[in-house]
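Structure, all two chains, one model.
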Amino acid sequence: MANTDTDLLGSRLTEQERELLNVYEALKKLASQDDLPPCAARNVRRALMSMWQATNDLDLQFEQLYEFGV
Amino acid sequence: MPYTEYWNPKNETLPREQLQALQLRKLRRLCEWAYATTPFHQRKFDAVRFKPEQLKTLDDLRRIPIMTREEWMESLQEKPLFGDMLATDPNNAIRYHLTSGTTGRTPIRVLDGMKDWDWISEMWCYGLWGFGVRPEDIVYFAFGYGSFIGFWGAHYACEKIGSLVIPGGAQTTEARIMQIIEMGVTTVCSTPTYALHLWQKAKERGIDLAKESNVNKVILSGEPAGSIPAVKHQLEEAWGAKCGDTAGMTEIGTIMIFECSHQPGGTHIIEDHFIEEVLNPVNDGPAGYEELGERVVTSFGRGFIPLIRYRTKDMVMKVPASACSCGRTWDLYSGGIRGRWDDMKLIRGTNVYPRAVEAIIREYAAIDEFQIYIWRKEEVQDEITIKLEIKPGHEAEWVVLQHKLAKDLANAHEGLRFNIERVEYGVLPHFELKAKRLADVRPVAQY
């Protein structure tokens, strides 16, 4: 779950933004598991890559993901 | 539900003071990342005692040293293949592209991680959606799909948007024309030069693309001509379609400006992902609105190779967002990229530095004098011809030299075709002091 209530500009997250951020954080958590089968591990990364765009475009996060190979 | 006009309504209409606050926050994080991970940026920051925490306002940006292409090239040459600019392990990369270098054969090589590569297409989404590309569109890419980055990002952007993508790839111009008509293509992505070439070839075959194709949008990139009114008018007449300009660079991997569907005569800057400064090229002071200056870009995208205050040598003129009626709060470059502050030439979308060409030519002992001759074929296609004189006694080497030199030059310029022409000895001007070996006889663009 997202551990922030605000976006990068300090504005309160909307319900929709919170949901998007929660999905993003859940994917990061999954990507950190090293025992996922390749079909899950690689597709989780693809999904994380996509959610990074949505959450970054909406100013919900600005971070790097290379630690996950993304 | 009808489509919104903007790819990202939140940021495309963000009040400018909030936009600048966002840029400042991202800039500080980017500088922290770059300083922590790349020796290149550590060295540059340390040299002027700059620390990311000194960034309190956006004006503090000017504390950061400007980065040049020459520094990048030096880094590549000292530490092949990527210099000391990589912020993470190359194993994290999924994509490799290159652009021609400023000197000799060394290209600028870039790597992208998974999210960087997707970000590249994301920037194209801003531009393509902004010009009106929608899921219902059928988009044709008149593009060769090589290691030149070109329209790669636009291809994936159209897939992301949900359009039907037709990759033109290695086909003849005639085959491309037939595919555009048969498949009911609505949008063509091309360089301005090649869009004119497609039209001309169609005309020669008795095909009127304005009447016989469904194309209603032509997305242009790779050359400044997309914002030159006369060229744009010619293209719009030829295709019976709206033409939209975009511009990007391999160094950032994608486009940073695009023309929206309101066609204001300029290109919006994607200001939530880039800081675009316009500087006076003489004293590096900031140029105001409506003043010609040099583009200096900071990118918040590709984290693999952080690009901070990168001097582009592009000539631009910034105007405020109010110059366009679309409602975006993003400033524009009136007339797109208007030219260059250096001697780089753009030939069919490929960067050509005369000194890099000369370095390759000088590897051939049989060549005496030479001239780089840039011209326009049939008022449509830019060509580059190397006119050269063979030293007396070396004439027998000409046939092999002609092919090998063309190949060497092409290899150093993303496959660009160079014409090699031998002239009689003594015909070309011989220089003793400042040599002028470049002749660009293309018509000068009128804005």
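The first strand of chain B starts at residue 93 and ends at 99.
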